[in-house]
Amino acid sequence: MIINKVRDTIKRHNLLNDGDKVILGLSGGPDSVCLLHILNYLKDEFNIKIYAAHLNHKIRGIEAQKDAMYAAKICDIMGIICFIRAIDVPKYCEENNLSLEEGARILRYNMFFEIKEKINADKIAIAHNINDQAETVLMRMMRGTGLQGLKGIEYKRDDGIIRPLLDVSREEIEKYCEENNLNPRIDHTNLEDIYVRNKIRLKLIPYMSENFNPNLKESIARMANLLREDSDYIEEQANSAFEQVCEKKSQNIISLDIDKFLKFHKAIKNRIIRKSIDFILGDIKGIEQKHIEDVISLFFESKTDTRIDLPRGIRVYKKNRNIIFTNEELVEKKINYNYKLPKSGYIKVKELNAIVESKILSVKEMKNITHDKYTKCFDADKVCGDLLIRNRKNGDRIKILGLGGSKKIKDLFIDLKIPREDRDKIPILVDEKGIIWVIGYRMSEDYKIDKGTKNILKVSFKLL
Amino acid sequence: MIINKVRDTIKRHNLLNDGDKVILGLSGGPDSVCLLHILNYLKDEFNIKIYAAHLNHKIRGIEAQKDAMYAAKICDIMGIICFIRAIDVPKYCEENNLSLEEGARILRYNMFFEIKEKINADKIAIAHNINDQAETVLMRMMRGTGLQGLKGIEYKRDDGIIRPLLDVSREEIEKYCEENNLNPRIDHTNLEDIYVRNKIRLKLIPYMSENFNPNLKESIARMANLLREDSDYIEEQANSAFEQVCEKKSQNIISLDIDKFLKFHKAIKNRIIRKSIDFILGDIKGIEQKHIEDVISLFFESKTDTRIDLPRGIRVYKKNRNIIFTNEELVEKKINYNYKLPKSGYIKVKELNAIVESKILSVKEMKNITHDKYTKCFDADKVCGDLLIRNRKNGDRIKILGLGGSKKIKDLFIDLKIPREDRDKIPILVDEKGIIWVIGYRMSEDYKIDKGTKNILKVSFKLL
To answer: Which of B195, B212, B288 should one mutate to test binding to chain A, selecting the residue with the greatest count of A CBs within 10 A?
Structure first.
């Protein structure tokens, strides 16, 4: 019965391939001993080779020693190679400021992956069962989680971890061990989250099963399986959306396109934000849904230049049509340039990666010129001294063509809603007297062509 | 505090529009009385008009009477119009074989929607709170549910139902009633799922809150909100996928395109199947995930002609590249036709909605004819007697061109993998001696053009 269940699980989730080398995590407790016995029974059927790995965690001295001896013995009987490593887990945890539970898990999994690499194995089999599944899902639900957490423990992970016992209950496992005289060690340390998990195991689940649903474990496992599929699907969609929305990624900075972002569904928006933060921090601990909501509001914000701060030093800037995440100070490099422009000729403004060209023409020649945002004509004889192309300076003013009086360039930029960090990128054409043209935006009244104009200065600007 | 919370909920979920007429479901218990009081306070701010509706369910005689009187009185004090209707719920439930809980809910909601229509109202406000939310989600989880169930009670539904108290706890509501001397009626009947819900309320949630998370209700509500977004998103995607995959819908039959179906993610596949069954049955009660899995396997099935049965009389057929759901016998209408084809001329085969054309040509004229699957030439002088176009008959045989010996048409159809129900749709050209051409598939050796051929019979087939 239990063997059939495990066989079904292996087949349905495609846990084993022909010829796989499998390392089994063997604590010596009922779950892992049962799995070892069953995999050993099925090894010819699936054509796999089994190894076991045991960590002597040195947590309770002689008991830990006995666990290791038991693991060695049972493998010896079955003719299975068993890797045993002894590590002073308490010392490691103290040095790294970890709970015993966390530390032991890290060291155990490190060991599995090291052995996997060493013997070139394909899979690492862990003996989690359906009770563990129900406990995990309930624990996460009570702590507050989203879809990601509710999907529970996975049958198979990309890194080679497989869990063939995940459809089997603890009761079935214990019965199997008894029937097969396996005499597993009772793990008194039970390192996993001992207090919380034991309460869930010994009190909550029995109460729920008795009062609400005798098949509670199975119902929760089925729910977790359905939610896993849903979660995988949304993650797949969110990954693709993230790549579309993401304009720029480098070590500590990520930039999202606002317009593209806004087209997605709220469920995807949420995940794009999480992925962005995860990209910067490596995880999203300490980031709550409230923070995600704040960032999403920023996308709808009408101001061009805003910033919010999230926990763990994440800053989120709104700049033009982008939202930028970073954990560094976002320093805009100060641009400064000042080029002499010949009356006829051209220069390159390398700060803007652009070319400015000038030409002196007769009034007649002007007829054929197409004027646009970046090509303008002026009265050449009104120009005083050298022509310069430069960025704005404090106190700059212009007599805007068509309007009376003069206006501060600073105010002009504010009116035009040009974000602060872009203002130095706007080139200005000046002579000795003042501003001739704020390139791309406004011309000066003082240099305009009129009836008396004899010579034309044509200037054009082109981004390379 | 509680008023601010309700205001936030209303704004965040856009529960009210300027000028809305709102009907409040008023039982007389703390929740609905509190909501009435708060909405009455906020009515000018949101510019809404409030009505109340109370159902005297006649379940506990004098107590139900007192509830109704209390509802009338409190509305009178606040100057709110209150619709009160008395219905013999126990009698209705007996007649319709419903539990008191179900019956009362149906009648209550019927009443709300009737009044809504009558006074042309926009919204129906129901006083569900965050405790109800946590209880509902836990109940569904313990019974086994998917994403759809875990998303819990909704703030706002398309039919006008709104739940402005959904972020407020029962404790806050009771405190508010006390502070405002509202003296609500304590609902001793508490019709909703009394035993299960009371156990969740009085035992399970307190135990969980004490032992695992003091903010359990809030965590579960937050989870439900996140899952609601995820669920909405997947449903949206699944609806669009369903429309793409669905080839044909009529009253009791739905046909899905296998190739299109297989391109979707498992999470979407699941939902397409559920939607198909829901289309036939109106709901999917009694349909379990196991059944969905069985149907999905059918899509991968290599046999062309299979069927599985689901509960409630649903039959699922695999026919060619389609999966068909129906709760009727899938009867293939027997097609029978037999047309005389002139040597030069044409006939219409109305059973196939097609035209067959024939012509006698000289050998020289044949040069210009393009032969294809549906246009063939034969030796006209080898034809004996009348030409007929008909469907297959028992015992039909053909001497296939290029192969020795004769073959049963039945075996030919099997070889060609033509599904049983399509076999009568394949027209056959015969003369008095036998089969000349299985149109679209094979020609007979006996009528082929050879060196001695003088006259050509050209036949072509065209679907209209």
So the answer is: B212
